Amino acid sequence: MLEHLELFFKSIFIDNMVFAVFLGMCSYLAVSKKVATAVGLGAAVIFVLAVTVPLNWLLDQYLLRDGALAWLGPEYADYNLGFLSFILFIATIATMVQLVEIVVEKFSPSLYNSLGIFLPLIAVNCAILGGSLFMQARDIPTLGLALNYGISSGIGWFLAILAIAAIREKIRYSNVPAPLRGLGITFIITGLMGIGFQSFGGMLTGDNEPPEDGTPATTADKTEEKLLIKEEIEEDEKVVSYNEVIHK
Q: Which DSSP state fits 70?
């Protein structure tokens, strides 16, 4: 359970698709002029990531990686279809985006018209493909964690575009210097938001590694370790001082 919570919050705040790795910036900047439009696109991105990341995890585990075809028989264990990763991942993403486009056009024509070309362009949104590639690179062990990562990455992108859309709606009534109006002030705000999101990194860092036997480190253990480190530093200082005296 702790592993799921850590991955969830880390994917939203620390490894945010927009502020940490700058993926999906084209849609982030182009569709963030109105909150309503940003909410619609953000919800579509969450859905596509939540579906495609687990599906691509299954493809990676049982088809693409080295030895993944062993379930077909021992004679297939040496096959490696990793070179097909991009093709199959993009095919899965394009299928899901087409499904989202059909649903949005059917039930919300106004949202479909406001999103315009950016709805079908989710298929080539680097944040969507990046979610599957990061899942593969990080070697996420279970389908549940892959689903968690897809949803949390989508929520992180959704919060990013929702926040910048709300700020851009309010900033229209502010006295922004003429050279910074438009994308200029948007980039500055994005940078400040990125700094704010990165500050959450301290939430998931601990003081010390747990002991090798798997038991959690106690306060006494931490204090003893600090005393040992202090004694080692003092010994090193004494050796340095002694060497300086000898050389003189």
A: G
